[in-house]
Specification:
Lyase 2-enoyl-coa Hydratase, Chain  A, domain 2, single chain, binds acetoacetyl-coenzyme A, 2-enoyl-CoA Hydratase, Chain A, domain 1, 10 strands
Protein backbone atom coordinates (compact mmCIF):
# COMPACT_ATOMS: atom_id res chain seq x y z
CA UNK A 1 0.00 0.00 0.00
CA UNK A 2 2.95 2.31 0.80
CA UNK A 3 4.88 3.56 -2.26
CA UNK A 4 7.22 6.44 -2.93
CA UNK A 5 4.27 8.38 -4.38
CA UNK A 6 1.84 7.64 -1.57
CA UNK A 7 2.81 7.46 2.08
CA UNK A 8 0.44 5.70 4.44
CA UNK A 9 0.69 5.78 8.21
CA UNK A 10 -1.69 4.13 10.63
CA UNK A 11 -2.18 5.11 14.26
CA UNK A 12 -3.77 1.95 15.66
CA UNK A 13 -4.48 3.37 19.11
CA UNK A 14 -6.48 6.24 17.59
CA UNK A 15 -7.82 4.10 14.71
CA UNK A 16 -6.88 6.72 12.14
CA UNK A 17 -4.75 6.62 9.01
CA UNK A 18 -3.01 9.34 7.05
CA UNK A 19 -2.50 9.09 3.30
CA UNK A 20 0.06 11.58 2.02
CA UNK A 21 0.31 12.37 -1.69
CA UNK A 22 4.01 12.64 -2.32
CA UNK A 23 4.88 13.70 -5.87
CA UNK A 24 6.21 17.15 -4.99
CA UNK A 25 8.03 17.82 -8.27
CA UNK A 26 4.76 17.58 -10.19
CA UNK A 27 2.71 19.24 -7.45
CA UNK A 28 0.84 15.94 -7.07
CA UNK A 29 -0.61 16.18 -10.59
CA UNK A 30 -3.18 13.43 -10.94
CA UNK A 31 -2.20 11.00 -13.69
CA UNK A 32 -4.30 7.86 -14.13
CA UNK A 33 -1.71 5.73 -12.36
CA UNK A 34 -1.37 8.20 -9.46
CA UNK A 35 -5.14 8.47 -8.97
CA UNK A 36 -5.27 4.67 -9.10
CA UNK A 37 -2.66 4.52 -6.34
CA UNK A 38 -4.69 6.99 -4.28
CA UNK A 39 -7.84 4.92 -4.78
CA UNK A 40 -6.04 1.69 -3.88
CA UNK A 41 -4.58 3.20 -0.70
CA UNK A 42 -8.01 4.46 0.37
CA UNK A 43 -9.74 1.21 -0.58
CA UNK A 44 -7.20 -0.85 1.40
CA UNK A 45 -7.75 1.36 4.45
CA UNK A 46 -11.51 1.11 3.98
CA UNK A 47 -11.16 -2.66 4.45
CA UNK A 48 -8.76 -2.37 7.42
CA UNK A 49 -10.66 -2.88 10.67
CA UNK A 50 -7.94 -1.06 12.63
CA UNK A 51 -8.86 2.20 10.88
CA UNK A 52 -12.09 4.16 11.36
CA UNK A 53 -11.22 7.52 9.79
CA UNK A 54 -8.79 8.58 7.07
CA UNK A 55 -6.86 11.82 6.53
CA UNK A 56 -5.87 12.65 2.94
CA UNK A 57 -3.14 15.24 2.61
CA UNK A 58 -0.43 16.39 0.22
CA UNK A 59 2.84 18.24 0.41
CA UNK A 60 3.24 21.72 1.86
CA UNK A 61 3.18 23.27 -1.63
CA UNK A 62 0.38 21.25 -3.17
CA UNK A 63 -2.53 19.07 -2.18
CA UNK A 64 -2.87 18.41 -5.94
CA UNK A 65 -2.55 20.79 -8.90
CA UNK A 66 -5.14 18.94 -10.97
CA UNK A 67 -5.20 16.29 -13.63
CA UNK A 68 -1.83 15.63 -15.26
CA UNK A 69 -1.84 18.00 -18.23
CA UNK A 70 1.02 16.09 -19.88
CA UNK A 71 -1.21 13.02 -20.11
CA UNK A 72 -4.14 15.04 -21.46
CA UNK A 73 -2.64 17.35 -24.05
CA UNK A 74 -2.80 14.88 -26.98
CA UNK A 75 -5.88 13.00 -25.85
CA UNK A 76 -8.98 12.31 -27.95
CA UNK A 77 -12.47 11.90 -26.51
CA UNK A 78 -12.20 8.13 -27.02
CA UNK A 79 -8.77 8.15 -25.38
CA UNK A 80 -10.24 9.93 -22.35
CA UNK A 81 -13.11 7.44 -22.33
CA UNK A 82 -10.72 4.48 -22.47
CA UNK A 83 -8.54 5.98 -19.76
CA UNK A 84 -11.68 5.75 -17.60
CA UNK A 85 -10.63 7.85 -14.64
CA UNK A 86 -14.35 8.11 -13.92
CA UNK A 87 -14.29 4.61 -12.36
CA UNK A 88 -11.51 5.71 -10.01
CA UNK A 89 -13.45 8.82 -8.96
CA UNK A 90 -16.51 6.61 -8.39
CA UNK A 91 -14.37 4.22 -6.37
CA UNK A 92 -13.15 7.07 -4.13
CA UNK A 93 -16.74 8.31 -3.77
CA UNK A 94 -17.71 4.86 -2.49
CA UNK A 95 -15.18 4.70 0.35
CA UNK A 96 -17.34 4.06 3.42
CA UNK A 97 -15.06 5.56 6.07
CA UNK A 98 -14.97 9.33 6.53
CA UNK A 99 -12.11 11.09 4.75
CA UNK A 100 -10.77 14.42 6.00
CA UNK A 101 -8.86 16.40 3.36
CA UNK A 102 -6.03 18.38 4.97
CA UNK A 103 -5.17 20.84 2.23
CA UNK A 104 -1.97 22.84 2.06
CA UNK A 105 -0.98 24.77 -1.07
CA UNK A 106 -2.63 24.21 -4.45
CA UNK A 107 -5.94 22.36 -4.74
CA UNK A 108 -6.71 23.12 -8.37
CA UNK A 109 -8.87 21.40 -10.97
CA UNK A 110 -8.92 17.68 -10.17
CA UNK A 111 -7.12 18.59 -6.92
CA UNK A 112 -10.03 20.75 -5.81
CA UNK A 113 -12.38 17.97 -6.96
CA UNK A 114 -10.38 15.44 -4.92
CA UNK A 115 -10.74 17.63 -1.83
CA UNK A 116 -14.48 18.03 -2.48
CA UNK A 117 -15.02 14.27 -2.74
CA UNK A 118 -13.69 14.05 0.83
CA UNK A 119 -16.14 14.53 3.68
CA UNK A 120 -14.52 17.40 5.55
CA UNK A 121 -11.95 19.91 4.27
CA UNK A 122 -9.41 21.54 6.58
CA UNK A 123 -7.27 24.17 4.88
CA UNK A 124 -3.91 25.63 5.81
CA UNK A 125 -3.61 29.40 5.47
CA UNK A 126 -1.55 28.92 2.29
CA UNK A 127 -4.19 26.78 0.56
CA UNK A 128 -5.43 27.87 -2.86
CA UNK A 129 -8.60 26.45 -4.40
CA UNK A 130 -9.85 26.75 -7.95
CA UNK A 131 -11.21 25.16 -11.10
CA UNK A 132 -8.82 26.58 -13.74
CA UNK A 133 -9.75 24.09 -16.50
CA UNK A 134 -11.39 26.83 -18.57
CA UNK A 135 -7.94 28.37 -19.06
CA UNK A 136 -6.89 25.11 -20.75
CA UNK A 137 -9.82 25.12 -23.15
CA UNK A 138 -11.73 22.48 -21.22
CA UNK A 139 -14.07 22.39 -18.24
CA UNK A 140 -14.04 20.48 -14.94
CA UNK A 141 -14.50 16.76 -15.47
CA UNK A 142 -14.50 15.20 -12.01
CA UNK A 143 -17.30 16.92 -10.14
CA UNK A 144 -16.36 20.61 -10.34
CA UNK A 145 -19.65 21.59 -11.97
CA UNK A 146 -21.69 19.20 -9.79
CA UNK A 147 -20.28 19.12 -6.26
CA UNK A 148 -19.14 22.73 -6.12
CA UNK A 149 -22.64 24.28 -6.63
CA UNK A 150 -24.01 22.02 -3.91
CA UNK A 151 -21.35 23.36 -1.56
CA UNK A 152 -21.10 27.04 -2.47
CA UNK A 153 -24.14 27.75 -4.68
CA UNK A 154 -24.61 28.55 -8.35
CA UNK A 155 -23.13 32.02 -8.56
CA UNK A 156 -19.83 31.35 -6.80
CA UNK A 157 -19.45 28.13 -8.81
CA UNK A 158 -20.04 30.00 -12.05
CA UNK A 159 -17.44 32.56 -11.08
CA UNK A 160 -14.82 29.92 -10.24
CA UNK A 161 -15.55 27.66 -13.21
CA UNK A 162 -16.02 30.39 -15.83
CA UNK A 163 -13.17 32.72 -14.85
CA UNK A 164 -10.76 29.98 -13.80
CA UNK A 165 -9.58 32.29 -11.01
CA UNK A 166 -8.50 30.70 -7.77
CA UNK A 167 -9.40 31.70 -4.23
CA UNK A 168 -7.56 31.80 -0.91
CA UNK A 169 -8.29 29.56 2.05
CA UNK A 170 -10.04 32.43 3.84
CA UNK A 171 -12.32 33.02 0.84
CA UNK A 172 -12.96 29.27 0.62
CA UNK A 173 -14.03 29.34 4.26
CA UNK A 174 -16.26 32.37 3.69
CA UNK A 175 -18.16 30.68 0.85
CA UNK A 176 -18.49 27.36 2.67
CA UNK A 177 -16.06 25.26 0.65
CA UNK A 178 -13.88 24.37 3.65
CA UNK A 179 -14.60 23.67 7.30
CA UNK A 180 -11.69 25.51 8.93
CA UNK A 181 -8.58 27.50 8.09
CA UNK A 182 -5.52 26.79 10.21
CA UNK A 183 -1.91 27.88 10.45
CA UNK A 184 0.12 25.42 8.36
CA UNK A 185 1.85 23.95 11.41
CA UNK A 186 -1.55 23.17 12.98
CA UNK A 187 -3.14 21.55 9.92
CA UNK A 188 -2.28 17.91 10.53
CA UNK A 189 -2.67 18.24 14.28
CA UNK A 190 -6.24 19.51 13.84
CA UNK A 191 -6.97 16.84 11.20
CA UNK A 192 -5.73 14.15 13.59
CA UNK A 193 -7.76 15.54 16.49
CA UNK A 194 -10.91 15.60 14.38
CA UNK A 195 -10.21 12.17 12.88
CA UNK A 196 -9.62 10.71 16.37
CA UNK A 197 -12.94 12.08 17.58
CA UNK A 198 -14.76 10.58 14.60
CA UNK A 199 -12.86 7.29 14.94
CA UNK A 200 -13.84 7.00 18.61
CA UNK A 201 -17.54 6.73 17.74
CA UNK A 202 -19.43 3.62 16.67
CA UNK A 203 -17.97 2.46 13.35
CA UNK A 204 -21.36 1.42 12.07
CA UNK A 205 -23.08 4.66 13.10
CA UNK A 206 -20.28 6.76 11.57
CA UNK A 207 -20.36 4.93 8.25
CA UNK A 208 -24.15 4.88 8.04
CA UNK A 209 -24.24 8.60 8.86
CA UNK A 210 -21.71 9.33 6.09
CA UNK A 211 -23.72 7.21 3.65
CA UNK A 212 -26.93 9.01 4.59
CA UNK A 213 -25.46 12.51 4.21
CA UNK A 214 -24.06 11.58 0.79
CA UNK A 215 -27.46 10.26 -0.29
CA UNK A 216 -28.87 13.76 0.23
CA UNK A 217 -26.81 14.79 -2.83
CA UNK A 218 -28.41 12.12 -5.01
CA UNK A 219 -31.95 11.79 -3.68
CA UNK A 220 -35.03 13.94 -3.26
CA UNK A 221 -36.13 14.73 0.32
CA UNK A 222 -38.77 11.97 0.71
CA UNK A 223 -36.49 9.22 -0.59
CA UNK A 224 -33.60 10.65 1.42
CA UNK A 225 -35.63 10.66 4.63
CA UNK A 226 -36.70 7.04 4.02
CA UNK A 227 -33.06 6.09 3.43
CA UNK A 228 -31.99 7.93 6.59
CA UNK A 229 -34.71 6.18 8.63
CA UNK A 230 -33.45 2.73 7.56
CA UNK A 231 -29.85 3.59 8.45
CA UNK A 232 -31.02 5.09 11.76
CA UNK A 233 -32.87 1.86 12.63
CA UNK A 234 -29.82 -0.22 11.71
CA UNK A 235 -27.81 1.56 14.41
CA UNK A 236 -30.10 -0.12 16.97
CA UNK A 237 -28.60 -3.46 15.95
CA UNK A 238 -25.17 -2.54 17.33
CA UNK A 239 -23.64 -3.25 20.74
CA UNK A 240 -22.35 0.34 20.84
CA UNK A 241 -25.89 1.73 20.80
CA UNK A 242 -26.87 -0.45 23.79
CA UNK A 243 -23.64 0.32 25.66
CA UNK A 244 -23.59 4.07 25.03
CA UNK A 245 -27.26 4.66 25.79
CA UNK A 246 -27.06 2.36 28.84
CA UNK A 247 -23.98 4.21 30.11
CA UNK A 248 -25.73 7.57 29.67
CA UNK A 249 -28.70 6.42 31.73
CA UNK A 250 -26.45 5.05 34.51
CA UNK A 251 -24.49 8.30 34.94
N1 LIG B 1 -0.20 18.65 -14.67
C1 LIG B 1 1.07 18.34 -14.95
N2 LIG B 1 2.13 18.96 -14.40
C2 LIG B 1 1.88 19.96 -13.54
C3 LIG B 1 0.57 20.35 -13.21
C4 LIG B 1 -0.51 19.63 -13.81
N3 LIG B 1 -1.80 19.88 -13.51
N4 LIG B 1 0.62 21.38 -12.35
C5 LIG B 1 1.93 21.62 -12.14
N5 LIG B 1 2.69 20.78 -12.86
C6 LIG B 1 4.15 20.71 -12.92
C7 LIG B 1 4.72 21.81 -13.78
O1 LIG B 1 4.69 21.45 -15.16
C8 LIG B 1 6.13 21.93 -13.24
O2 LIG B 1 6.87 20.86 -13.76
P1 LIG B 1 8.39 21.13 -14.34
O3 LIG B 1 9.15 21.62 -13.14
O4 LIG B 1 8.82 19.80 -14.84
O5 LIG B 1 8.23 22.18 -15.39
C9 LIG B 1 5.93 21.64 -11.75
O6 LIG B 1 4.69 20.96 -11.63
C10 LIG B 1 5.85 22.91 -10.91
O7 LIG B 1 4.86 23.74 -11.47
P2 LIG B 1 5.13 25.29 -11.87
O8 LIG B 1 6.54 25.47 -12.29
O9 LIG B 1 4.08 25.68 -12.85
O10 LIG B 1 4.92 25.98 -10.46
P3 LIG B 1 4.33 27.44 -10.17
O11 LIG B 1 4.49 27.66 -8.72
O12 LIG B 1 4.90 28.43 -11.12
O13 LIG B 1 2.76 27.32 -10.51
C11 LIG B 1 0.58 26.32 -10.46
C12 LIG B 1 1.95 26.45 -9.76
C13 LIG B 1 -0.17 27.65 -10.39
C14 LIG B 1 -0.20 25.25 -9.70
C15 LIG B 1 0.80 25.90 -11.93
O14 LIG B 1 1.68 24.77 -11.98
C16 LIG B 1 -0.46 25.54 -12.65
O15 LIG B 1 -1.21 26.39 -13.06
N6 LIG B 1 -0.73 24.20 -12.81
C17 LIG B 1 -1.87 23.74 -13.57
C18 LIG B 1 -3.15 23.85 -12.76
C19 LIG B 1 -4.32 23.40 -13.61
O16 LIG B 1 -4.61 23.96 -14.65
N7 LIG B 1 -5.03 22.34 -13.14
C20 LIG B 1 -6.18 21.80 -13.85
C21 LIG B 1 -5.75 20.61 -14.68
S1 LIG B 1 -7.05 19.94 -15.69
C22 LIG B 1 -8.04 19.09 -14.63
O17 LIG B 1 -7.79 19.01 -13.45
C23 LIG B 1 -9.25 18.42 -15.25
C24 LIG B 1 -10.21 17.82 -14.26
O18 LIG B 1 -11.21 18.42 -13.89
C25 LIG B 1 -10.01 16.45 -13.76
Amino acid sequence: MDSANILVSINESKKIATVTLNKPKELNALSYSFLNEIFEALDTLDKNEKVNCIILTGTQRAFAAGADIKALVDQSPIGIWKMNMYDLWQGIKQIKKPIIAAVSGFALGGGCELAMICDIILAAENAVFGQPEIKLGIMPGAGGTQRLPKLVGKHKTMELVLTGNSITAVEALRIGLVNKVLPLEMLLHEAETMASTIASHSTVAVQLAKESVLKSFDMGLSDGLAFERRNYMTCFDTSEQKEKMGAFLKR
